[in-house]
Amino acid sequence: MINRAESLWQRIIEKGTSQKEDFKESLNLQPSAKDEDFQLIESMLNVTLPEEMKSFYRIHNGQNWKVGGHSFIRNLTLSPISQIIDNWLFLQEEFEPDDLELSSGFEIKPFLWNSKWIPIADNGGGDYLCLDTDPSEVGVAGQVLYCWHDWGMRSIEAKSLYEFIDICIEESD
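The structure corresponding to this sequence follows.
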């Protein structure tokens, strides 16, 4: 029986292949992440990874981005665990811990950067798709948000990684 993560990967690849024949090959997908990878990221970031992320990464540990490669959804490249850690370290230095953004949605704590956000994908222009492991009281652990490099507003895109991927797959082209 196919699990939810496998089903999503299959749908991503089918949709992309219907538009570009070489889509799957140009994704440059990495082999599955291992339990050691999850333990490393959890200890480095001091977070508990959402189970959906672990299941999704057990299929493919992100992409090896190359010129001419395709995004897995929207304009986003899925970061391998090692790149997530590098991006998180970069973002830790980029923002002051007390920098507030008062216009953030109620589901997000009002910070420009929260060390409990996991930057799982990026668009190559300094914007990150993050999983929020430290939401506000009305938010949901594992909710998906955009962290824009040149705009303080942080926006919730979905309540979970799987919901976000479903939304992206269903979007019209």
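The mean pLDDT is 89.
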